[in-house]
Amino acid sequence: MKVFVNKRIPEIGIEMLKEEGLQVIIPENENLSHEEWLEYCKNTDAILNVGGDFKYNKDFFDACPNVKAIALYSVGFDHVDIQEANRRKIPIGNTPDVLSRATSDVAFLLMQSVARSASYNFQKVKNGDWNAFDPLHALGQELYGKTLGIFGLGRIGFEMAEKSRKAFDMNIIYHNRHRNEEAEKMLGAKYVSFDELIENSDVLSIHASFTPEHKELFNSSVFDRMKSNTIFINTARGGFHNQKDLYNALVEGKIWGAGLDVTNPEPMSSDDPILELSNVCVLPHIGSATIEARNGMARLAAGNIIAFSKGEKMAACANPEVYK
Ligand code: DGY
Fold first, then answer.
1. Residue 91 shares a structural domain with residue 109
2. H helix intervals, the chain
3. 292 is catalytic
């Protein structure tokens, strides 16, 4: 069975595939054009997909009838039309759990960085702009006892909530499609409506899966209703927020600051005015970028391909309904 891997992943995953006798195809030049990528896909049985550049939609599945399984090297699957995959009984593997710690660590890091303008102040030091001690300068805010609002309380949201509760005794409120009983029991998390979430959070952190109805849900009408001390954190997908509206909300003091590991668009331009603001910290989508998480993702994604090759169910699958 041929497996196309569009970008090199940690060796452990490649070794696993080879040990099973699978034919692994990795392009020498990993920056494939859409046409080049499609050519590789047409000639393969399964794909181990890295990144969100290529879309798996009806046009793709029509053009590549040989593809019978896709294992994503990501937990997010917003670049896949799941209904089309279901129609064709194509399992779509993903990589939950193994990256929850690493991604929530980045949300936690951004929350603190923005509360104390850490990256802005670091930049000032680098620019030789370290002035005399000033009691009224560079004042951040403390997080102790504040309210953390989680939009999408799944595995990553749970980790973020747990860390924030342990470190800062934060109150947890959340809005989700379903109640999270474990978080309610273990963290005292309180389920609230979306309106209550945005109006009461001192820190609002997004951890939901991105779907088309979420497109720019966090826009001026939402930022207008947040508290002026709110820190907005997005480590999920840039599409959740309207970046111009976010910029305006920050400049007008509607909210305190923003920590972004994902941007809209992504990658964002280096001359985006949001980067000039003192109350912003932006990272280049590094949520899962730890050795531990990336190795875990490689094992899980390769394991999903191997399971498929043996006619077994994938261990982590975004559309388990294909197995019914
Ligand atoms: C994920 O796993 O979804 C990360 O955002 C990397 O794409």
1. no
2. 11-19, 34-42, 58-63, 82-87, 100-115, 118-126, 155-168, 181-187, 194-200, 220-223, 243-251, 291-309
3. no
Residue-level pLDDT at 131: 85
For the segment 63-72, what is each residue's pLDDT rounded down to a tens digit? Answer: 999 999 999 9
Taking the centre of ligand 1 as the mean of its atom positions, its distance from the CA of residue 208, in whole angstroms, is 12
Catalytic residue (one of 165, 237, 241, 294) = 237
Same domain, 188 and 53: no
111 and 236 share one domain = yes
Residue with CA at minimum distance from ligand 1 atom 2: 74
Indicate whether 110 and 223 sit together in one domain: yes
Distance CA 148, CA 158 (A): 11
User: Comparing C-alpha atoms, which of 62, 50, 66 is closest to residue 2?
Assistant: 66
Q: For residues 223-231, give the mean pLDDT.
A: 98
242 and 126 in a single domain? The answer is yes
Q: How far is CA 192 from the centre of its chain?
A: 23
How close is the Cα of 252 to the center of ligand 1, in Å? 32
CA of 75 to the centre of ligand 1 (A): 5
Residues 233 and 173 placed together within one structural domain of the fold: yes
Cα–Cα distance measured from residue 8 to residue 11, given in angstroms and rounded to the nearest whole number:
8
| 3-state class (DSSP) for residue 210 | coil
Which residue from 49, 54, 55, 75 has its CB within 8 A of the most atoms of ligand 1, so it is best to mutate?
75
**What is the residue with the minimal CA distance to atom 6 of ligand 1?**
74
Q: What is the pLDDT of residues 156-176, one digit of tens each?
A: 999 999 999 999 999 999 999
Q: Are residues 268 and 318 in the same domain?
A: no
Taking residues 210-232, report their average pLDDT: 98
257-291, pLDDT tens digit by residue?
999 999 999 999 999 999 999 999 999 999 999 99
How many structural domains are present in the chain? 2
Q: Is the pTM of this model over 0.85?
A: yes
Is residue 237 part of the annotated active site? The answer reads yes
Task: Let me know whether 256 and 315 are in one domain.
Answer: no
Q: Is 285 a catalytic residue?
A: yes
Provide the domain limits for residue 11: 2-96+291-323
Q: What is the CATH number of the domain that holds 307?
A: 3.40.50.720
